[in-house]
Each structure stands twice: as C-alpha cells, then as structure tokens.
Design brief:
The protein has a 7-stranded parallel β-sheet with strand order 8-7-6-9-10-11-12, sandwiched between helices. Helix 1 crosses helix 10 (about 280-295). It is built from 10 helices and 12 strands. The longest helix is centred in the N-terminal third of the chain and has 19 residues, at about 90-110. The radius of gyration is 21 Å and the shape is elongated. By secondary structure, it is α/β, with parallel strands linked by helices. It has helices at about 10-20, 70-75, 90-110, 110-120, 145-155, 180-185, 210-215, 230-240, 260-265, 280-295; strands spanning about 1-5, 25-30, 40-45, 60-65, 85, 135-140, 160-165, 175, 190-195, 220, 245-250, 270. Bound molecules: NADPH dihydro-nicotinamide-adenine-dinucleotide phosphate and oxalic acid. Oxalic acid binds near residues 68 and 69.
Length: about 300
C-alpha cells in the first residue's frame, strides 16, 4: 500500500524524506507518478491537486492537507465520498503565524509605516507615543492559530477580543460569536486580524459593510484566505482613509496578479502567502500517525468536520 504525495515541485523531496524519517517502510509515490491506482491508501496534498483526480484511487482511506487550511480540498468537487480529511495542527506552523501576526500588529501599533515614510523623506520627527493598553485587537477565529496569536498579544499587554462560531471562553480574551457578536466586536476593534477558515459562511466577511463598522483609522491584517476579503471594498476604505493600512498574506487568486492595485498601494503590505509555511519535518509525525491509524482502522486525529467546513 502506498502514499501519494502531491505538492509544489520544490517541496516534494522534503516531504518524502520527512515521511520516510518517521517510517522508512512507507511506499511513497510522487504525483503524477502514482503507479497502480489500487495501491494508493492515503493522499497528502497541497492546494494545486485536483480533487476529481483522487477518484481514480479505489482504496483511498485518508486525505491529508499539507496545511492548516482545508478549503482547497473541500471545494467542488470535494474529496471522494467517504474519505476522511485531516488537517495539520503543528507547533511550528502556529509559531510562524504568531510571529507574523505580532510583526504586523507591532508595525501598525508602533507607526512603522509613518516612520518609513519619514525616513524616505529624511524627516526627523517624533510621533505621539502609542498606548498598548488602548490598542484593541479583534481576532476573527480563535482556533489553533487565532488562539495562539491572542495569547501572544495579551502577553504584550494589548486588550484582545475574539470572534468564533460557537461560544468560547478563552482566559483574558473578550469572546464574541454570531452576527450580533461580530458587529459588537468590530465596533471596538482598532486592529482586525483574520484567522478564520474559508467556508461558505466566512467568505467575504471583510467587506464594505463590516469594514464600515470598524472605528475610523483601524488596521486590517488578513492571514487566512484571500476569499475572506473583498479587495475592492478594502481599497475603497483605504482610499477614503477609513482604514489606515492593511497587511495581506493571502489573495484570490494567488499569485496576486502583477497589475493588482495592492502591489503598489502605499498603505498595503503584500506577502506571498508566506505568513507561516509548513515545515515537513515538523508536520510529518502526525501525518504518518494518521496513515498508520487509517491502515489499522483506528480513530484518526485532526479530522475535518465536513458539516462545519473546517
Ligand atoms: P481552526 O479550525 O483551528 O480555527 C478556526 C477558528 O475559526 C475557530 O475558532 C472557529 O470557531 C472559527 N470559525 C470558523 N467558522 C466560523 C464562523 N462561521 N463564524 C465565526 N467563527 C468561525 O483553524 P486554524 O486556526 O488552524 O487556521 C485558520 C486558517 O488560517 C486556516 O483555515 C487557513 O486558511 C489559514 N492559514 C493561513 C496560513 C498562512 O500562511 N497564511 C498558514 C496556516 C493557516 P469555533 O472555535 O467555534 O470552532
Ligand atoms: C495553511 C496555509 O493552510 O499555509 O497551512 O495556508
């Protein structure tokens, strides 16, 4: 029985080696060299893999995302019926995201954009000192990543709020849920951080109507998926001055087209979907654990709840 690996060409060998380091007996096939389709028992895929293609493997028992997000696996036509899907929950992936969120929160909080503009103009001028305890952070999603960012921001002394699907209690965080909760949180959010999964319910969550609820001069940080944000609405809010600046790591489509206005916008920080990059050697143990569990018919870990969409 074999494992099908399908990811960007430059990470394929790293993944192969990382999985073999956990279990040297694994038979790993690098897509598109799958061999006999009946051999494939598990597929470990990243965003470019066509889900319709997976229907070729009659003995597929498990599909694993090479990231925390699974929207690429669940979108139409979706994984083959009856095949469970697992995501990654990985300390180093979480650490990378926490660092990226802190980096951008601090850039905005500490007026880094203004100071860079001053540097370009050779201006030596002190801006008013920012108040950490008054810079309210609102995080959309308090899961693996949002929860870790919330704790790190609390540790720096920021007041932190978070919005989730089900009611949550997170120590030190003011928690909101539901439509009314979202409106209430946005009205008090100076820096909005999106760490939601992309589902039909969360698509377009950052749009004209929600941006308008943020206080004038708020910042937007999106590290989740491009589909969470309506780009034209953010551009309009930036151009009107309602939103001060944005840090964006994810776009729809990716790569961000060369002529997109975000590239040259003075108030937008563009990242190439690199806020946190999966490190195969760190993620491989849980993937191999799941492959062995699937083979032996034991309960799987880090499973996606199809009804919730993440
Ligand atoms: P989790 O599944 O652990 O957490 C998701 C959170 O979002 C939960 O708190 C959940 O609520 C909340 N949520 C989901 N749907 C809704 C909804 N309809 N309304 C309100 N809240 C909702 O995900 P992770 O934290 O691991 O990852 C989040 C996303 O980050 C990934 O799906 C991926 O898209 C993105 N990502 C981006 C990376 C990058 O480099 N840019 C790297 C890794 C991930 P509840 O607690 O009630 O379940
Ligand atoms: C992920 C990502 O989902 O890298 O892990 O975007």
């Amino acid at each position: 029985l074999a494992v099908l690996l399908s990811t960007k060409a430059h990470t394929m060998q790293d993944w192969r080696e990382a999985l073999l380091a956990c279990d040297p007996t694994l038979d790993i096939r690098l897509f598109p060299e799958a061999g006999d389709p009946a051999d494939i028992e598990a597929a470990v895929c990243w965003t470019q893999h066509d889900m319709a293609e997976l229907r070729r493997y009659p003995n597929l028992k498990l599909l694993v995302s090479m990231g925390a997000g699974v929207d690429h696996l669940l979108r139409q036509p979706g994984p083959p019926p009856g095949v469970p899907v697992a995501r990654l929950k990985d300390e180093r992936l979480t650490q990378g995201m926490t660092e990226w969120v802190l980096l951008n929160v601090l850039r905005f909080h500490r007026q880094d954009l203004e100071y860079r503009a001053q540097q370009a103009a050779r201006v030596w001028d002190e801006l008013p000192a920012p108040e950490t305890a008054q810079r309210r952070i609102g995080i959309l999603g308090l899961g693996e990543l949002g929860g870790a960012s919330a704790r790190a921001l609390l540790g720096l002394g920021f007041p932190v709020m978070g919005w989730t699907r089900s009611p949550r209690e997170v120590e030190g965080v003011r928690c909101f849920h539901g439509e009314a909760g979202l409106r209430e949180m946005l009205g008090q959010t100076d820096i909005l951080v999106c760490l939601l999964p992309l589902t039909p319910q969360t698509r377009g969550i950052i749009r004209a109507e929600t941006l308008a609820l943020l206080p004038r001069g708020a910042f937007v940080i999106n590290a989740a998926r491009g589909g969470h944000l309506v780009a034209e609405d953010l551009l309009a809010a930036l151009d009107s001055g309602h939103i001060a600046a944005a840090a964006l790591d994810v776009f729809e489509p990716e790569p961000l087209p060369a002529d997109h206005p975000f590239w040259g916008h003075p108030k937008v920080l563009v990242w190439p979907h690199a806020a946190s990059i999966t490190i195969p050697s760190s993620a491989a143990p849980q993937v191999v654990e799941n492959i062995l569990r699937a083979r032996e018919g034991r309960p799987l870990i880090n499973l996606v709840d199809f009804s919730a969409g993440y």
